[in-house]
């Protein structure tokens, strides 16, 4: 083939390649402009919903379940999972049993989720921001002498870091299916530690695999409007999709992956529409987080760690909390990540036994 024809053919190939890419990008852009259809109704204000106005002006929604006012028990604060989770009616029902035993219980929607306000920019959300909110809630809103923290999943990571920073404010710490302690444990050379070698699973704990749900979740993420929203949030700190849309997408996603958080599928509770999309996306960046492990070893806060047989988390990652805090680890058979969905009575009995145990206080 003559050189001129070769060059002409090459130019045509380049031209059509760029034209095809341009058409694909244009279709993607147009598609990403189409608002997402609502699939789950947003969470509605409850009769007992109250609000704290924080020093930065935003509002955090909470529910207070009052215990016996004649007692002197420390108040309980329940920290939900996520990030971007919310206070579901099922956990309110559970905590009413705790309150009946003489404990005031506060359950609040972390900023950006549930009935709490949404922040203006995606990157306004951070792990450190949630810690500051908790500290302000304790110091300026509730004003107790000490608190009992119950942290579930992501809330367990929050509760642990808060305890490391403010151990003088924490009476007892209870971790329910806590997520991996952040930042991840590393070796002296900076490589990731082999947690299973450090904490091998004892033979008496027979774990079972929950239903696989996260592959479907990952596929659902590949919608042009969602992809564009995350790109704009990461690159430009801009909300391409509205909070309402992104929250609804997260609720839809949650309605699928919660089916893998139980031992028995019949125990899955319906989504109530309180997920926070942008909070979910930006509250779990731990790049600048200080490792608290050495600090935790020195604390003297009574700690209980619960894990279900069907938990997605590895035994080693969950047991690490009990080891660092010199706490007690409890394995619950036939329960998933959300333990109280499968074993509500056992969950509350285990909690109350720990809360009422005066020997489990080192203060």
At a glance:
Helices cover 41% and strands 12% of the residues.
Task: From the structure above, extract its key features.
single chain; 363 residues; alpha/beta; Rossmann fold; eight-stranded mixed sheet; 13 helices; 8 strands; 41% helix; 12% strand
How would you portray this structure in words?
With 363 residues, the protein is of the alpha/beta class. The protein has a single domain (49-360), classed as Alpha/Beta hydrolase fold, catalytic domain (Rossmann fold, 3-Layer(aba) Sandwich). Helix content is 41%, strand content 12%. It has 13 helices and eight strands. The chain has helices at 3-32, 89-100, 127-142, 154-165, 195-198, 214-221, 224-236, 243-257, 277-282, 293-297, 315-324, 339-342, 344-356, and strands spanning 49-53, 59-65, 75-79, 105-108, 147-152, 170-176, 303-308, 328-332. An eight-stranded mixed β-sheet has the order 1-2-4-3-5-6-7-8, with helices on both faces. β3, α2 and β4 form a beta-alpha-beta unit. α6 (214-221) packs antiparallel against α8 (243-257). The longest helix is centred in the first third of the chain and has 30 residues, at 3-32. It is globular, with a radius of gyration of 23 Å. 37% of the residues are buried. The model has no long low-confidence stretch (mean pLDDT 92).
Topology:
Elements: H1 3-32, E1 49-53, E2 59-65, E3 75-79, H2 89-100, E4 105-108, H3 127-142, E5 147-152, H4 154-165, E6 170-176, H5 195-198, H6 214-221, H7 224-236, H8 243-257, H9 277-282, H10 293-297, E7 303-308, H11 315-324, E8 328-332, H12 339-342, H13 344-356
Parallel strand pairs: 3-4, 3-5, 5-6, 6-7, 7-8
Antiparallel strand pairs: 1-2, 2-4
Helix pairs in contact: 1-7, 2-13, 3-4, 6-8
């Amino acid at each position: 083939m003559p050189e001129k024809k070769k060059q002409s053919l090459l130019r045509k190939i380049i031209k059509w390649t760029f034209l095809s890419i341009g058409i694909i990008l244009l279709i993607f852009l147009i598609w990403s402009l189409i608002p997402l259809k609502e699939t789950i109704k947003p969470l509605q204000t409850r009769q007992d919903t109250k609000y704290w106005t924080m020093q930065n002006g935003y509002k955090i929604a909470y529910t207070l379940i009052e215990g016996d006012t004649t007692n002197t028990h420390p108040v309980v604060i329940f920290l939900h999972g996520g990030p971007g989770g919310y206070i579901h009616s099922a956990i309110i029902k559970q905590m009413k049993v705790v309150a009946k035993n003489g404990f005031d219980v506060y359950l609040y929607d972390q900023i950006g989720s549930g009935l709490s306000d949404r922040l203006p920019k995606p990157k306004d959300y951070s792990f450190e921001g949630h810690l500051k909110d908790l500290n302000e809630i304790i110091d300026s809103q509730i004003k107790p002498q000490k608190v009992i923290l119950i942290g579930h999943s992501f809330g367990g990571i929050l509760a642990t870091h808060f305890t490391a920073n403010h151990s003088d404010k924490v009476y007892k710490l209870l971790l329910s299916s806590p997520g991996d302690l952040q930042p991840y444990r590393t070796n002296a050379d900076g490589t990731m530690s082999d947690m299973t070698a450090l904490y091998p699973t004892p033979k008496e704990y027979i774990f079972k695999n929950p239903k696989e749900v996260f592959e479907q979740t990952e596929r659902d993420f590949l919608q042009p409007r969602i992809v564009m929203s995350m790109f704009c949030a990461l690159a430009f700190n801009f909300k391409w999709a509205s909070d309402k849309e992104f929250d609804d997408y997260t609720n839809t996603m949650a309605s699928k992956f919660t089916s893998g958080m139980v031992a028995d599928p019949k125990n899955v509770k319906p989504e109530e529409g309180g997920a926070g999309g942008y909070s979910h996306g930006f509250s779990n960046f731990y790049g600048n987080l200080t490792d608290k492990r050495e600090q935790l070893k020195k604390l003297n806060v009574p700690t209980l760690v619960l894990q279900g047989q069907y938990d997605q988390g590895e035994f080693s990652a969950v047991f690490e909390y009990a080891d660092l805090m010199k706490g007690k680890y409890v394995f619950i058979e036939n329960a998933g990540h959300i333990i109280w969905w499968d074993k509500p009575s056992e969950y509350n009995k285990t909690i109350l036994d720990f809360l009422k145990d005066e020997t489990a206080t080192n203060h």
